[in-house]
Amino acid sequence: MGGKYKGRILWYLNEYKILRYGELSKTLPDITTKILTQTLRELEKDTLINRKVYQQVPPKVEYSLTEVGMELIPFIQYLKEWRDKQIEKEIANVTNR
After folding, report:
1. CA 57, 60, 63: angle at the middle one, nearest 5?
2. 28: which residues sit within 8 A by CB, 6+ positions away?
3. What's the start-to-end Cα distance of the chain, in Å?
4. pLDDT tens readout for residues 8-59
5. Which end of the chain is more exposed for a tag (fewer CB within 10 A), N or C?
6. CA distance 63 to 44
7. SS3 state of residue 61
């Protein structure tokens, strides 16, 4: 479950339920095309996300969480809350200087 973007991708898929590649790319503006593609493949291989391909032109691919991926959301939520507290502490420290 390592990697800079995996948790964020899982979090956004939880928030939006289904996202297409372009939507994920816009949601994560600091990720390159190569890394996004690689990360999505790894998450799919680890059975954390579903990849649904529609046979049409232009191609349409949608990503969503699997049940296993959904089980990780409470842990990601905890990490997000912890991060938010750390940011609040940093702001308070800067303000009190």
Report:
1. 170
2. 5, 8, 9, 12, 36
3. 38
4. 999 999 999 999 999 999 999 999 999 999 999 999 999 999 999 999 998 8
5. C
6. 9
7. strand
The model's pTM is 0.85
Measure the CA angle with vertex 33, ends 71 and 21; round to 5°: 55
Neighbours of 13 (CB within 10 A): 24
pLDDT tens figures, 79-92 = 989 999 999 999 98
60: β partners: 54
C-beta separation of 3 from 39 below 8 A: yes
- CA 80-81-86 angle, to 5 degrees, is 95
Residue from 16, 9, 5, 11 nearest 77 by CA: 11
pLDDT of 1 reads 65
Whether 63 contacts 40, CB under 8 Å: yes
